[in-house]
Every structure is written in C-alpha cells, then in structure tokens.
Amino acid sequence: MKAGEFFTPGAMGTIEARSTYFVDNPQFPYCKGCGHTQILRALDQALVKLRLDPAEIEVTTDIGCVGLADALFKNAHTVHTTHGRSTAFAAGTIIADRILGKGKLKAIVMIGDGGAMIGLLHLVQAAQMNVDLTVLLHNNFVFAMTGGQSSAFSPLGFVTTTMPRGGIVPPLDICETVQSCGAGFVARKFATDRDLPATIAEAITYPGFALLEVIGLCPVYATRLNKLSGSGLKQIVESQGRRTGVLFRRDNRKEFTLVYREKFPPRDVPTAESFITVNFSHNLTKPVGLIITGTSGERVQSSAKLLCQAAVMSGLQTTQKNDNPVTQGTGFSLSEVCLSPRPILYLRR
Ligand code: SF4
User: DSSP 3-state assignment of 97?
Assistant: First the structure.
C-alpha cells in the first residue's frame, strides 16, 4: 500500500459489472497445481456473478498458505487474522455491521484445515449463533505451510511428514460438526468442480451461517507423499462415505442479528455516533497517510492510537494498522495511520 491512497465513496466504483475483484495481473503465491489457486479463482467468479459492491465485501483470511490470499484482492476489504481466529473476527464485524452499520456487509472467511482445527470452537459458535457469514474451508488434509504435518482432517492411512506410515486417527467431518451445531447451509465440493463458483455464490447469498468445505490438492506434500491426483482425492472422500454437493440447507432459522434485534430493539442500542463526542475541529480537505515506526516497547502503537483518538474527537475518520513481531518488547514496531474527512472504505495497494 502507498500511504495516502484511499478508496472513499466518491472514488470507488458503483455496483457496475466487473470482470474481476483481483488486482491487475494477479500473481498467485502458490505452488503449481495448488488447490488454493483454483478455489480463489472460483471465489472471484462467484463475486463477479453476484455483482457485489466492493465496499460491502470483507475477505478474512487465517494462517497457512491460504492466508497469503489477501494481496490478490483489490476490490474488497481484506483482513488477515491470527491462528484460527478468522471466523471470530468476521462474526464480530458482521454483528457490528448489522447492529450499528448499514447491514449490507458480506463476510467471507478463507481458512485451511489447520486454521479450522485450531479455531474449531469459533466455527462451532458461529454456527450455533447462525451469524451471516460464509466460511470457505480449504481442506488439503495437511498443515502445508509448516511442512506437511497431519491435521485433524487427515484421512485414515494418509501419509504426512508426522505420520509417515499413514494416519491412524479418524478424520473430523467438519460438515457434520457444524450442521449438528445449527449451521444453515453446509456443502462439500472439490476445488476442480466446474460448478464451484455457483456453489460459492449460493453460500454467500444464504442469509445465515454457511460452510463450504472445498477439498483440494497440496501437490508439495499430498502428491509427493501419497502419489495422489485429483481423482485420488475423490476416491479418498468416497472411501470415507462422505457425500459431496450441497449437503444441507435450513430456511427456518433466523440469523443471529435478527434475533438480537427482536430482543434489543434499535431504540435500546446505541449508535456508533453516540460513542463519539466531537470537541474539536480540523482543516483537512483530503485523506492523509502516516507511518509511525520505532522499536517494540517504545509505545509506537499506543502513540498511533492516541493520534487516532484525537482525530476522531476532531470529526475525522481514521484507520490504524499495526505490525510488530510476535515477541513483545523487542524488534520493530510499526503503525500505519490514515486520517480522512470522508469515510475510509479500504486502502489501495
Ligand atoms: S505448500 Fe501445498 S498448500 Fe502450500 S502453496 Fe504449496 S501446494 Fe499449496
């Protein structure tokens, strides 16, 4: 991102048909033949088909190779989150949008089998609550980015770097799991399915929690260790007795925020504006971007937060993006701050 470049309502496109939501000439950061590339292309085709407003799409990614997808999207909000937490982040933004905002946001979570295993409770609870979000679970049966270790989704007999003689623990059936927790839309597809974009579009338009497990190949580990091909994946799924396609659709359950609204009518819920008191004025006529850097522990991010708070109290819109190493108190620390007299919808790379 170049600091200072923003999409604001005046600058962004309307809901005209577009041929892609990706950056120009996207460079997929995946190995040749990787299922992630196929799934991302299918998602893009689904978004094109639905003609969604870029300002109303939020793609939230998790850890692992799938988490590299953020940089591919130009016409969507992207959020990269911590291990397994993508569903919780997306649920939070959807609830905030439905209760405090315009209620038009479409949240799409991109999570691998590793992230889903680590964040299983978030998936379970989002299904229980029936929050209106779509989870695209990229299942390639291994922790690929960290070296091909087994996940809770690795099939019986599947060879991984941690189970060189093949898995001996039955794999989790995520579709059954979330369905039993109240999910309204559950589907299982292969990354190579021609109708994958249509199923993704159906999941996105479903008004409640939707999970689509997409089984794809990790050529680096799955193919090498198991001598697999695309048809090999299908044989594995069939041998598990697992069906594919749209497995379940429930249309008699209210989405979480509708239930919330009935319990807490709008008059009882504070608006976003009611949290903010504007005590000062500003003379900004256009957005500006600032980068504050230093060493971790020097209060770099606290300083940026104070700046944003002062800007909000002056009637400005702000965003703050932080970056620092996992090890606290050492290494670099960085905050990107944007201040704008107009709403900041998303930042342009
Ligand atoms: S390691 Fe596997 S999952 Fe990761 S990019 Fe390569 S093929 Fe894809």
Answer: helix
Q: Where are the domains of the chain?
A: 31-263, 272-347
219 CB near ligand 1 (under 6 Å) = yes
- Average pLDDT, stretch 270-293? 86
Average pLDDT over residues 198-205: 98
Cα–Cα distances in angstroms (integers) from residue 1 to residues 74, 248, 289, 332, 347, in the given order: 11, 41, 10, 19, 7
pLDDT in tens, 306-327: 999 999 999 999 999 888 776 6
349 — pLDDT class (breaks 50, 70, 90): very low
Tell me the two tokens of residue 186. Answer: 């559950």
287 lines ligand 1 (CB under 6 A): no
Residue that is written with structure tokens 């300002």 in the block: 55
Q: Is the C-beta atom of 36 inside 6 A of ligand 1?
A: yes
Mean pLDDT of 29-40: 96
Query: Whose CA is closest to 222, among 136, 137, 153, 119?
Result: 153
Q: For atom 6 of ligand 1, which residue has the closest CA?
A: 31
Does 34 contact ligand 1 (Cβ within 6 A)? yes
The whole model's pTM is what?
0.86
Across the strands, what pairs with 292? 335
AA identity, residue 200: I
pLDDT digits (tens, 9 = 90+) for 282-293: 999 999 999 999
Give 236 or 271, the one with higher predicted confidence: 236
Q: What mean pLDDT value characterizes the chain?
A: 90
Question: In whole angstroms, what is the distance from residue 86 CA to residue 79 CA?
Answer: 8
Q: Which residues is 109 bridged to in the sheet?
A: 60, 135
Query: Could you identify the residue written with the tokens 């989405």?
Result: 255
Cα-based distances in Å from 145 to 73, 220, 234, 239: 21, 10, 23, 27
Is 3.20.20.450 the CATH number for 31-263?
Answer: no
